[in-house]
Amino acid sequence: MKSIIRYYLLLIISLIFVQTALFSQSIDDDMAFYKKSHTAAELKEGDRMPDIPLGMVVNNHTGKTRFSQFRGKLVILDFWTTYCGTCLELMPEMERLQKTFGDSIQIFLVNSEETQDQINERFKNSGFRLPDLPSIVNAKKMYLLFPHPMGNPSHVWIDGKGIIRVRGSQYSTYESKIRDLLAGKIIYNMKDNNSTAIFDKRMPYYQFLAKTNTKQTFCSFFTAHNNEYAALTGGRVEGIKDSAFGTIRNTFVNREAIELYAALFKESLLNFSSKVILYNGPQSTLGFSFFVKDTLRYTFGFNALHKDKELMDKDFVKSRVCYEQITPISLTEKERQKCMLEDLNRYFGALYGARGGLEKVKIPCFALVRTTKEDKLATQTKGNNYKIEPITVHGMRFVSYHNRPLKECIASALLQMIANPKNTSTLLLDETEYKNNVDIVLPDEQELGQAPFEKLRKSLIPYGLDIIKTERELEMVVIREKDYQSPK
């Protein structure tokens, strides 16, 4: 009888041990884990989260103190600092996700560097409110587990079995992906620079591919976004000479498609931008015109402007490619560019039936023009005696510009319009041909309000200037898909 009781006791103890092991490795001494080297302590996707204390938690309405107590629940760690603007912008969304999923998930704000007193001091008199989420502060030990650049968002997901499923950027966390994981579906996660090799400009891309057994077949070649190499920011280097082999190398790792085309048409794009006073679309697309079904194939810029849309990692990587060109030094730059353009059009042609190149395009725009041949603007010799000062005229706020480029003065007045882009892009061109700096008084940006062009025109008339709505034929970099049909 005693042997039977002993058997069942051993069986129960074994089951308890196995259940605990499913969540995390057992650590008798919490500090022993942190005494390991930085490399040994760092956790990656697929590792188990150790059963360690949460640490100093502010607003801990969960009542829990260790990671093992969250078995069966998705835990999301949102690493942040008070000087990370992107981190702060994301907090309302993290609070919304917590409310949406309720008890199925638990989001923790994790500040690896600052104490609660330091956080309070930073936000004192700022009007900023932290979301209603538990916040782990001064979490230096947590940083050893998940090292990341301070001042940048970093997210970690730990599933209900204690397995680290996501370690990535702010683009890794969104509603539909959480639903997929909770439903037991396979999720995609774009890695970031914290968990991948750092871009090394000394190493040709094909050498890195060889290390990862990625097949390469040409001296110039493409791959889609590489999730194992500089996954978030990518890298770019051009004109690297190898005297031993007599070659020149251009390498683009995880860069947007339009950046590759822009590298070929620098002079044309600079000429285009020299005429532009205002463009409140994505700056990376300035000088580009798209006749395509989906701009996400070429740039993430348009999508990033729409704050009401869900920004997903799959969208972010869609336009990003890796390209490397290795050519003999004997080739001229013009010949090298010709080869690259053929490569780009061949690659995107195969994917989407697309071609890129310079074309004259008629586009609707606004133009700053002269209304009289008489020069009514006081021009100045360029120098350091410039001034910009606010003034008040009849109770209205103006800005007096002295010895500044005309384009700069107009752009400054329209700063609010530039900083708050709308769904449709606005292009304002300078057709005045003023070369010298000028003296001019214009309304303060706040005075322009909801109708900036109309109010600005009244101030421009005395100077013999006007802003007109028009259409211009301009040389632009055009990306065109052959089966594209413009919407009716």
UniProtKB/TrEMBL annotation:
<dbReference type="InterPro" id="IPR036249">
    <property type="entry name" value="Thioredoxin-like_sf"/>
</dbReference>
<dbReference type="InterPro" id="IPR013766">
    <property type="entry name" value="Thioredoxin_domain"/>
</dbReference>
<keyword id="KW-1015">Disulfide bond</keyword>
<keyword id="KW-0676">Redox-active center</keyword>
<dbReference type="InterPro" id="IPR050553">
    <property type="entry name" value="Thioredoxin_ResA/DsbE_sf"/>
</dbReference>
<dbReference type="InterPro" id="IPR017937">
    <property type="entry name" value="Thioredoxin_CS"/>
</dbReference>
<dbReference type="GO" id="GO:0030313">
    <property type="term" value="C:cell envelope"/>
</dbReference>
<feature type="domain" description="Thioredoxin">
    <location>
        <begin position="43"/>
        <end position="183"/>
    </location>
</feature>
<dbReference type="InterPro" id="IPR000866">
    <property type="entry name" value="AhpC/TSA"/>
</dbReference>
<protein>
    <submittedName>
        <fullName>Thiol-disulfide isomerase or thioredoxin</fullName>
    </submittedName>
</protein>
<dbReference type="GO" id="GO:0016209">
    <property type="term" value="F:antioxidant activity"/>
</dbReference>
<keyword id="KW-0413">Isomerase</keyword>
<dbReference type="GO" id="GO:0017004">
    <property type="term" value="P:cytochrome complex assembly"/>
</dbReference>
<dbReference type="GO" id="GO:0016491">
    <property type="term" value="F:oxidoreductase activity"/>
</dbReference>
<keyword id="KW-0201">Cytochrome c-type biogenesis</keyword>
<dbReference type="Pfam" id="PF00578">
    <property type="entry name" value="AhpC-TSA"/>
</dbReference>
<dbReference type="GO" id="GO:0016853">
    <property type="term" value="F:isomerase activity"/>
</dbReference>
